[in-house]
Structures are given as C-alpha cells and as structure tokens.
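Example: Myo-inositol-1-phosphate synthase.
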Amino acid sequence: MEKIKIAIIGIGNCASSLIQGIHYYKDKSPEEAIGLMHWDIGGYTPSDIEVVAAFDIDERKVGNDVSEAIFAKPNCTQVFCDEIPKMDVKVTMGHVLDGVAQHMAKYDDNNTFVISDEEENNEDGIVKVLKESGAEILLNYLPVGSEEATKFYARCALKAGIAFINNMPVFIVSNPEWASKFEAKGIPIVGDDIKAQIGATITHRTLANLFRERGVKLDRTYQLNTGGNTDFLNMLNRDRLDSKKKSKTEAVQSVLAERLEPDNIHIGPSDYVAWQKDNKLCFLRMEGKTFGDVPMNIELRLSVEDSPNSAGCVIDAVRCCKVALERGIGGQLTSISAYTMKHPPEQFTDDVAQSMVEEFIAGERER
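Written out as structure tokens, the predicted fold is:
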C-alpha cells in the first residue's frame, strides 16, 4: 500500500516516541505487536506512516535530519528503538509566536528550548514546504499555551489543503468556527488534546464512570500530576494553563451523573520535578457516598512514561484520518476524536467511543 505521509510540528518527546514506534513495529507480526490498540486500520499498519516534513524552532534540531533530531536535547523520553534510519527529511525552521514560554530561558540547555537564529518561516513558507513534501496530514505537538502558534499552523493546513490532528489543548477541532472552515474544504480534522492509552485522564474518567454506573455519588476529586519533561517545565507558567485545565476537567466532568462544583474538582499539572524526565506521576483521589449515604474514597498512584503513552493513541488517529481522506470525508472526525482526545467536539464514554471507532473503521459510520 501507499504510505501515509505526515508532517509534524514540534520534534519533541511525543514526536520522538511516535517516530520510534513507526520503526519499532516494522518487523513485528500482529501477535508480537504489544502496545497497540489496533494493528490494522483500513489496511494500514504503523510502519505505513512516513514522516515527510517536520518543523521546530530549536537550534539543535533545525537543519538536522529527523532521525537525529528526535534524540536531540531537550528530549528526554525513553529510547525503545534506537535504530532509526536516516530519513532524508530535514527539520525546517518554524514560526515561534507564543510557542516558547519566557521562563524557559532561565533553565540550562538540557531542559529548555534554544531558539535557532535561522529566519522564521511565515505562512507561505510553511505551506510551500507542506505542498512540496506531499504531506497529507499535519500533526500539532506544540507546547501547552501555544494559542497563536496553533492557529497559525491550522491556517497553514487549510491553505495547504491537508488534514490536521491537534494533539494539544488549543480548541480548534472542537471550535465550530474552525471546524466549519475545514469542512468547507473537505479536509478531515481530529482533536483536541491527545489522551494517553492508560494515563491520568482516561483512568480518572474510567473510575468516574464506574462511580456513576454503580450508583455512587462522587462528592469531590483531585488529580495531581508531576513530571520532568519540557511539557511540565513549560506549564510552570500558570498563564498558559487555562485551556489545559479546562480540557482535562471537562474530560472527567462529561462522564459524571451530576457535574461537580468547581471547588470540588481539581485536575491539572501540579509541578515540575527535573529528575523524573519523561516519567509522569499521577496522584488521584475520589471521595463519594455509597449505599446508605456511607462515605468511601479511592486513592491511586499512577506512573507512566508520558510520550510513548500518547503515541499509542496518535498512531490510530493518523490512520483513521487517512481512511477519512480516502473516503472523501471532511470536517470533524467525531469517533476517533472522542476515542483519542480529551476535548473532542462531542464527548462520549470511552466504551461508546471505542465502539464508534470500530464502526468507522468497518465503514459502518461516516465519521
């Protein structure tokens, strides 16, 4: 089969895990393919994905082959596939805008972005690269809080006429105004804000849904997360967290029998611990009442490698997006967005979303 040609914005830890995964599963059989939700989607396996363009702003990545850039600092995710062949795809200088928080410059080179002195590309420059590369899908991996930068690249995707997968919490796909622009052009979009396969939010949602299904009233809950990658360092700037907290909170609120008052639900990044690197720790507490109004609580500690956890969902989103392109479907892809994203256009419980995706893959559901 032909390759699924993707372009990536931000060659950080998440992009590194995704690209490692594309090569890791290349020589695997379906029986050996541990860690995938789907081996085959529309006839495409993970190794059918090809990176044809990449954008970043860090001088240690810009101008280098993608195969080298994914291991360059400040990336710190686990290396599970170190034999990445040269791709002959150089990282192109992107457009900074609000993609870099000011406080990041206060840390050493191991933990921050070092902005390249190469001239930034404007919309026309980015679109030119996208068109010349033959990219079909543009993946957004910008840091949390990159509101203007995300809108910039969404416009680039529209101008280039390619699909857009928004893996971070700026609301593009779930915004009717933006969604209508892509639908008018017949371009599929998936978003917003990628879930993990088994991460803090989906675990929290699953337990919240269990409370509802078993008749337990949830009174209050928190989810506190710490990590040591650039994502957590970036989020020390609380001004960049509005959409992230909204995305994570709504993901849980949406499955409750009765929405909690703001004072009774706290979900969001809590602190940066450098030595954790790409390991994310989640501390979760849920308090409620069971039969007879008797109180109960659950406390849970979850430890995951953050970036591979998200790549397991992105690799399905990419292939579903390709299927939509082949079927001529434009606009919001409701099923795969609900299954893989924290803030999709429409929220469903995870079991319902999974069934919707299976129907979409089988051609029994339009989007």
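The first strand starts at residue 4 and ends at 9.
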